[in-house]
Design brief:
mainly beta; eleven-stranded mixed β-sheet; 14% helix
Length: 235
Amino acid sequence: MTVVYEDNHVIIVSKESGEIVQGDKTGDVPLSEAVKQYIKEKYAKPGAVFLGTVHRLDRPVSGLVVFARTSKALARLNKMFAEGQVHKTYWAIVEKPKAPLNASVASEPAGYTEIEHWLVRNEKQNKSYAYDHEVPRSKRARLRYRLLRHLDHYDLLEVQLMTGRHHQIRCQLSAIGCPIKGDLKYGARRSNPDGSISLHARHIEFEHPVSHQLISVDAPLPNAHSSTKGDIVFW
C-alpha cells in the first residue's frame, strides 16, 4: 500500500490488486490491519489503534481506499458516502466493443456517456447481472464513462460512479460489450498474469468531515510504463 493522504481524522491509501480491505475467509492479512500497524509505528501509539473502514474495493481492483481515524470522522464519512457526497473516478482498460466507442460524445457533463441498468446480485456466485429494465430484487445502477485513449487492442475509459452497487462498474461495462481486461467473471477473454483486473480507483474528492476543507487526491498508476509509441501502458 501507499499512503497518499493523512491527518488526525482521515487516512487514504492506494492499495495494490490482490489486497483485501477487510478480513475474509481466506485468513489473509487485510489492508485495514496494515494501516493500523502503520499508524501504530509512525506515531508510537500504545495499545489498540482505532480505524474505521468506510468503503471497500474488490480484491482484484487497485487504487484509493479511505479510512477514518476517529469515530467522529467515521460517522460523518459513512453518511457522506451513503448520500453520494464523495466523488470517485476510476480508470478501466476494457476490451474493444464491436461498435467503437465515441471519443467526443456530447452529454452532461461534456464528453461523458451515461448508462443505466438494473442489477441483481447473486450471493452464491458473488456476481451481479444487468438488466435494461426493473426486475424483482434489482437495484438501479448509473454511471458515466468517457473514452480517454484508444490502445492497440483495448480502450482506456474514465468512469464516474453515480450509484454504488455490487460489482457495478465490472457488470455495467460488460453489459455494453466492454468487459474489463482480465475480468473473467464478467466476460474477459483471458486473465491478467497476476490475477488482477484492469480497474483502478484513480481519484477521490470530498469535503473533509471535520475541517470541511476539500480533499482531492489521485492514486499512482499500477505498474505504469511507457510503450515504444510513447503511450502510458499499465496492467
